[in-house]
Amino acid sequence: ATSLTDWTNRELWSYRMTRQQILTLISIASVNFSSMICYSILGPFFPNEAVKKGASQTDIGLIFGCYAVCNLIGSLILGKYIVQIGAKFMLVTGLFVSSGCTILFGLLDRVPAGPPFIALCFIVRSIDALGFAAAMTSSFAMTAKIFPNNVATVLGSLEIFTGLGLILGPPVGGWFYQSFGYEVPFMLLGCFLLIMVPFNIYVLPTIDADASKDSFFRLLTNVKILLICYLIFTLSAGLGFLDATLSLFAIEKFNLSPGYVGLIMLGLSLPYCLASPLMGYFVDKYPATRSWFMVTGGLATGLGFCLLGPAPFLNISGPLWLLVIMLGVIGFSLGMTALPTFPEIITCV
């Protein structure tokens, strides 16, 4: 009976989705795409621009890092109260906040260099992270609620739009920066994100949910969940490291323009975008392979980072083609590692 039910659910997913499911997919896909393209435009040119404004390499790393810290804190708090706030309201509000912060970030070049510029970067970036946390937390919750039997497949499909945002952000940002200056990329993409607000108000269905009676910290008593959280932590740390350092490294070592740096970053996001749907479908169809995917992907990511520079202990030179190939390896292995984590945590819970 269980096998028949699982087969029926897969057939319904393959041939017919409800109106609520279709609208939810459209809405979350728009959130993933618009949020990621606004997030990723900083990579090719912001570190170099921040250096001109008197920021050190440590300051730049902390500006990128504060985004992750506020995202972490916001996700914990908003995840706890999402039922009381409402998933739809949280998502739309998060989009609105992120759009405003993206536009404000584009005006920071008018701020005096030194401490005022650095302080405002921290403030705007932190508030943007809270908006992003609201949008993504609610989108994950709605995905698990509406597609309980196909979580990884749906996430893999939605990651196409996440990947597209990551793909388009660096080259579009680098090209607009070269052509029109610092402000234009943020203004255009912030306005684009703002347009998504009324669109999602109209499209996104209202979802009822019951509040959980369990404490979040009770989840951390499960060893497997702790290991998965550590895996997500290391992946996020790796991506944060690349955000803060890759563009400066490519500009200094290979004498590339911000536009070409944006194209090089396609090596990271394009394999992830292409691999995610296949990985999601596979881990849904064969749940027993999730652990193997996470372990293999983690090892491949580690190897990619060792050869990306490359690491000094390898005593080899790092040509540009090696950098691009290793970014591709990291992007593909991220899909292998990250996609199984969400359905696996749900299974553990």
UniProtKB/TrEMBL annotation:
Q: Which PROSITE patterns match?
A: MFS (PS50850)
Compartments, as annotated in UniProt:
Membrane
- What's in the keyword line of the UniProt record? Membrane, Transmembrane, Transmembrane helix, Transport
Task: Kindly give the Pfam families that the UniProt entry links to this protein.
Answer: MFS_1
* Bilayer-crossing regions: 22-42, 62-82, 89-108, 114-135, 147-168, 180-204, 225-251, 263-283, 292-314, 320-342
Its placement in the membrane is given as: Multi-pass membrane protein
Q: What domain of life does the native source organism fall in? A: Eukaryota
Question: Which GO cellular component terms are attached?
Answer: membrane
Q: Which InterPro entries match?
A: MFS (IPR011701), MFS_dom (IPR020846), MFS_trans_sf (IPR036259), MFS_Vesicular_Transporter (IPR050930)
One example of the protein's molecular function in GO is: transmembrane transporter activity
Instruction: Report domain Major facilitator superfamily (MFS) profile positions.
Output: 24-349
Please give the name of this protein. Answer: Solute carrier family 18 member B1
